[in-house]
Amino acid sequence: MAAGKQVFAIVKKDVLAELRTKEMVIAMLLFVILAMVVFSQAFGVILNDLDRVGGGLLWVAFLFMSMLGLNRSFVHEKDEGCLEGLLMSPIDRPLIFFGKMLGNLLFLSIVELFAVPIFFVLFRLELGASMAGIFLATIFLSNVGIASVGTLLSTISINTKTRDLMLPILFLPVIIPLLIAAVSATGGIMSGEELTEVYRSMRFIAVYDIIFLLVAYALYDYVISE
Length: 226
Hints:
The chain is mainly alpha-helical. It has one domain (3-225). 83% of the residues lie in helices and 0% in strands. The protein is built from 9 helices and no strands. It has helices at 3-21, 23-43, 54-70, 75-79, 82-88, 93-122, 129-157, 163-191, 195-225. The two termini are 26 Å apart.
């Protein structure tokens, strides 16, 4: 089986499993909406210039929402013995990573597709059509990094006794540089800053994504075997 078909088979398995239960996507969506409602009530009253802090509030909600989903990405495989089946199958271990990472990326993107319009409505923010593409590209690039780091670290944490606590402990320090760049880029777009600064942050995010994709590719055989 070609590598692309093997990766697609893993993504398809995760999507079909989620369609049967819908527990992860619904939980992530409810969490991010609740966080946005709380933020809008707490900060909307005291801040008149929300477009300058909107990027930070958006990514705080997205960050904790993503951890909720990433923490569940290997639970079914571990609890139901599917992980052992994947390890015994004739598939390169890094392809397991790419399949799981693409599945996590898909779930994050679906939730954010619904959450972003709600965010703009709750915070009464506007974004011109010319900037919408850059805004969505920034979110997608950031999601690639979150899914890459989260998939790698969730593979490590799933084999620990405190797996629900281990992922945030490992994930948060590693993702901070990406989070800072994502906040800077999205905040700059919403506040109408010069695109030069926005593009600089986007380039940093892209380099971050490439580095961790390469690190995961190099280490995943060892990580998933432990």
